[in-house]
Specification:
This is Minor fimbrium subunit Mfa1 C-terminal domain-containing protein. This protein is mainly beta. Helix content is 9%, strand content 29%.
Amino acid sequence: MKQYVYRIFLMLGLALWLVSCTGTETPIDDLGNIPEESIPSGTGNMFSLAMRIPLPNDYMGTKAYEGVDRGSVSEILIDGVRMVLYEGDVVKYCLDLDIQVQPDNNDFKVTGSDLYNWTTDGNRIFIQTIARTFERSNYDMLIVINPNDSIKAKTEKGEHVTALDVAFNTTIGMFRSRTVIGEEGTYEEPAYFLMMNSQKLVELIPGNFYATKEKAENNPAFINLERVAAKVTCDYAGTANTKSTAVAPYGRFVMLLDYNNQSEAPWGDEGYDIPEDCIKCPVQGCTGTFNRKTKQCSAKPYLHTYDGLGLVSDRVRYMVATDLTWEIDVVNKKSYWLRHLTYKAGGTVIEEQGDIDREYFYAEDPNFSGFSGTDAKKQNFSYVLDGTELNPGTNSTAKKLYPQLSDYKYYNYWSWKKGDTQPVYIPENTMVQNEQKKDVVTRVIFKAVLKREQFGEKSTEVNPELPLKPIEGFFVFKGGNTDIENYKYNNYNKDNTTFFILRPEDVEIYASASTTEHIHIYLREGILEAIRQFKEDHPDFNFSNWRNEKPAESANLSFYKNGEMYYEVPIEHFSVAEAQGIGKYGRFGVVRNNWYKLNIEKMISIGSPVLPESKPEFIETVTRSAVPEVKSNSNILIRNQSIIF
């Protein structure tokens, strides 16, 4: 694998260029030298270019599964390179260079008549062109890899440099697609990425031009390049440690069943809800166990009386989050061709040409300020408008997320397979400090589907025999008794607040109650006020006809449909330490040629029943845990963001 990755880097370097498009050249003799009469003042006109393309050796893989490098191969492909020399802000030379990097089965082939040499130091690719002749002068140089038609038109001979400051439409032109045949079948993935100068135009002086081809190729001018797109990947990776025997922090939740209001326990049709770790009778003080078939306690073969308040059998169902998908939301529709340098982390020092502390770089995009809370944002950003956009399939760009938890017990509950997760490439999106708000900050929306666990008579929690069962609906109540041992009957959020998951049949009864007499003892504190507020927020909601109702959210009581729930994660750029405080400049946003790796470590809290709204309100009120890795300036900078739902 190391040798394969090494070869990939080499290919990347090879992918740079040189074939002439337009421009006047000085003649050379058969040996490749400039005739003496063409050499002004005894100097030379020969020039060679060495390009540095960032692609980290150690981070080629876009996924962590068995060394699969899906996406990374396409990131290095090149089918065209353009060299543009500006003299006095006007294009004097426009050269299309012949260097190709193309796939070749499981490898690459690098070809091109303009390639002089290429190599790699394990972190970046160096691609050098053969020497060519130009009029010796002062120039500003632009290099474009995989140019699209728009940038070609703006860099033809005679075009003015100000054309580069016109924002382009990011829905086209950042990359093309290629068809790939893999283990999962045939699919399309982004490839042939548009790459340009990593900072500004590079200044060339007469000293960069030499009298002979040999001298020019021994003394090339260097330029750093970067992709105009940012990269985002998501993994569900962590440890399967548990806070209690009943609830594990990786998407497993408990539903409390209230049988006070039924003549007999409605256990449903096939399967049982009690896993092995809950066979002991849950009633406080009872030493008996439940028989899975009769549902009776061995110590007291009848339903228990609890403090004289009615018949209570504290039984539960378990639900597991499955089939996670994710989608990028709030995507910038505009970008500059070249990254506009701006203040670094801390907001006091502006990035200058030649700076290499890339972990502190930010950018200023065309929508840098003035859009949050305005109608103009709709014309400048793309939004996810409906939860159905998170359903993979026809006309959906949602990505499947395969779990990578160690010792994860629920692989067999997921519809996805290994290899389903793909990277996403998006345009730059940055903003001023006082506009780090939900309606203009790029975020990732996650969707999960809760399904009910079922256990056969011989099933254990580790080895369930029965498949998961779909859930029609449920309510989440934030309140009730918080002093329950080991969270056997309620759930806890990551902030240590608790919540109960309730059956709609039970909440239907509670909704018509005026007192808590027939309400489960664990729920009595706050449940009636939560229902009152829910009714006020959703006056047309019919508790008796909940199967035909849509998901609904209120302060302390929410209704979920078909087990679907959503999480939102704003993408972070600088860590709190780098930004020098919570909510400070550059905490959020995406910058080109950065790789944003979102790593879900735990799923403790339950998600929202509806798609989280992108409101014009500040994101950060608490510290988050994004800690960028410090890498060489030659690499794609990787910014890790740990997520605990």
